[in-house]
Write a structure and sequence with these properties.
The protein is α/β, with parallel strands linked by helices and 201 residues long. The chain has two domains: 14-126, 3-Layer(aba) Sandwich (Rossmann fold), CATH 3.40.50.2300; 129-199, 3-Layer(aba) Sandwich (Rossmann fold). It has helices at 4-8, 27-41, 62-71, 82-91, 129-142, 158-174, 189-198; strands spanning 14-20, 48-54, 76-80, 97-101, 121-125, 148-153, 177-182. Helix 3 packs across helix 4 (82-91). The radius of gyration is 21 Å and the shape is elongated.
């Protein structure tokens, strides 16, 4: 039988909540984050417990999923993407939130500034907004005669909405017409690609 001191030495379990708009944990994100957490805090199933919540493309479910994680008394919420981070921020002001996003967290209303985010949110961003115009410019350099470019994007995502606005501005400068192919659910992909082919984008 274990003595009281022995019981006291058992490490407390750390509960990590993972929230995403997707239906899976992105492989690159899993390698970069979960691998390092395992090294730092021990293997999964030891003193680390992962609670995942997937919106599977339905961002309107994110607030309720975030509430589930808070109710489960997680120690930290990892928010994959701006919609997930916004849902987590709205749900709790006390549970630490680590965001991993590709947009501008300041413009999205997640933090006050990059230098001093404030509140209970921290994390990383690739600031892909700055690369949007460059990508279109590279297309023009590779295919100088390109005059029409099809763009697959999800208008329900705040970060993609910002990228779309930046892309339209860049297209105007480069003399390119954009064909908007909105993807709101997995079944939208095939018909949108057919549309791009039919309109010779």
């Amino acid at each position: 039988m274990l003595s009281v001191p022995a019981l006291a030495q058992q490490p407390s379990k750390v509960r990590i909540g993972y929230l995403t708009s997707s239906s899976y944990v992105h492989p690159a994100f899993a390698d970069l984050f979960f691998g390092r957490v395992s090294i730092a805090g021990g293997p999964w199933g030891g003193n680390l417990e992962l609670l995942s919540r997937f919106a599977a493309g339905s961002d309107d479910r994110l607030p309720s999923l975030a509430a589930e994680l808070v109710a489960a008394r997680v120690d930290i919420i990892v928010a994959d993407g701006i919609p997930a981070a916004l849902a987590a921020k709205t749900t709790t002001r006390t549970v630490p939130i680590v965001m991993a996003i590709s947009g501008d967290p300041v413009q999205a209303g997640l933090v006050a500034s990059l230098a001093r985010p404030g509140g209970n949110i921290t994390g990383v961003t690739t600031l892909s907004l700055e690369l949007v115009a460059k990508r279109l410019q590279l297309i023009k350099e590779v295919v100088p005669k390109a005059s029409r470019v099809a763009v697959l994007w999800n208008p329900a995502s705040p970060e993609k909405e910002l990228e779309w606005k930046e892309l339209r501005s860049a297209a105007s400068r480069l003399g390119v017409t954009l064909q908007s192919l909105e993807l709101r659910r997995p079944g939208d992909l095939a018909p949108r690609l057919d549309s791009a082919v039919n309109e010779r984008a």
